[in-house]
Structure formats: structure tokens, C-alpha cells
């Protein structure tokens, strides 16, 4: 096995669909909703854009953490070190 194995989003969604959706899709939906809300209500987009950038950054970090968690579980299962 290579030293650096990357899980794809499809593999993450197959391993844990609910958690993957929560950490990947929910922040993006919130960012899009806030941008639409700002546009519909005629508000300055500065705050909405900052919120969207923060939500996208959160989604990236949370998805990376979730992928690492899945890689650890897979390695533990391969080597018989899983939790009882």
C-alpha cells in the first residue's frame, strides 16, 4: 500500500452517507442560501460572501477530517485492530 492514499468523495459517501452529507453538502447549502437571501433582500453581499467563504473552508476541513477518520477505520479493519 502506498504511503499516501486518498479517498474519493464517492468512497466517503459509500462508507458513511449521512456524515458525508452533513460535512460536505450542508455547509455548501448554507452558503448558497445565505447568498440568495442577501440577493433577494437587497442587502450588501460583503457579509454573505464572507459567510460563504467561511462555510466553504469549513466544508473542506471537515471533509478532510472525515476522510482521515475513514482511512483510519479502514486500516484498523485491514490489520485487525478495530474496536470490539
Shape: elongated
Radius of gyration equals 17 Å
Classification by helices and strands: mainly alpha
Q: How far apart, in Å, are the first and last alpha carbons?
A: 25 Å
- Note the beta-strand portion: under 5%
Mean pLDDT value: 87
Number of helix segments? 3
Question: Uncertain spans, ≥5 residues at pLDDT below 50?
Answer: none
Sheet with the most strands?
none
Q: What is the H/E string?
A: HHH
Q: What level of helicity do the residues show?
A: over 70%
Tell me the total number of β-strands: 0
Explain how this protein is built.
The chain is mainly α. Helices cover 77% and strands 0% of the residues. The longest helix is centred in the last third of the chain and has 34 residues, at 45-78. It starts with 8 loop residues before the first helix and ends in a 6-residue tail after the last helix. The mean pLDDT is 87.
Amino acid at each position: 500500500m502506498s504511503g499516501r492514499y486518498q479517498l474519493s468523495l464517492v468512497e466517503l459517501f459509500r462508507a458513511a452517507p449521512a456524515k458525508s452529507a452533513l460535512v460536505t453538502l450542508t455547509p455548501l447549502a448554507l452558503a448558497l442560501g445565505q447568498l440568495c437571501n442577501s440577493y433577494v433582500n437587497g442587502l450588501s453581499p460583503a457579509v454573505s460572501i464572507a459567510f460563504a467563504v467561511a462555510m466553504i473552508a469549513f466544508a473542506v476541513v471537515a471533509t478532510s477530517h472525515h476522510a482521515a477518520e475513514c482511512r483510519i477505520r479502514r486500516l484498523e479493519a485491514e490489520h485487525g485492530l478495530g474496536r470490539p
